Amino acid sequence: xxxxxxxxRLREQPRTxxxxxxxxxAARARFLAHGxxxxxxxxxxxxxxxxxxxxxxLFGGKVGILKAVLDVAIAGDEASTPVAARPxxxxxxxxxxxxxVITGFVGVTAAINGRIxxxxxxxxxxxxxxxxxxxxxxxLNAQRGRGQALLVDALVSGHVLRSGLxxxxxxxxxxxxxxxxxxxxxxxxxxxxxxxxxxxxxxTLCDQLx
Length: 210
Description:
Elements: H1 7-10, H2 14-34, H3 41-48, H4 52-59, H5 62-75, H6 87-94, H7 98-127, H8 131-157, H9 167-177, H10 180-189, H11 194-209
Helix pairs in contact: 2-3, 2-5, 5-7, 6-7, 7-8, 7-10, 7-11, 8-9, 9-11
């Protein structure tokens, strides 16, 4: 789940916010159509109708643009509120029944994976050839691990994690089953509907963790 946005984001003027949004939208389309390596800042700048100097000022470089695209995809919007602080996650953490905890987190994860799965593949492909993209991938995976840990922590604190199942092993199960790679395989390649994926993931996690 994504971290909070920098404080400077909160002070952005409307014109700056529009420029950011235009660049993010243009970059997303370019990255998905052509990949990270084949996309240039000049092309993103032209598509967004934002001057290259402004693009560099706002994002620092191409990997900064990709990070912004991913952040928006994870959160679902450009608001500064971290995913972990949003109502759906807070409700899932506060649930007292294990099934409700899992159902709540699956709802959040299914929505995030639906928005990010294709972009995550762009990032993993870029990481093979680009050191900055590799660092971004590592950061994103660590961020995802912290978000998924909230699920396991909620089950542990609620004393509903399966007896004899170590929290570390539970975290491994969650990491594998909630991954964007698995979502893309089942929904993007095997033709599952998002609802079928969410139903299966909920039942499987309940079977494995409770």
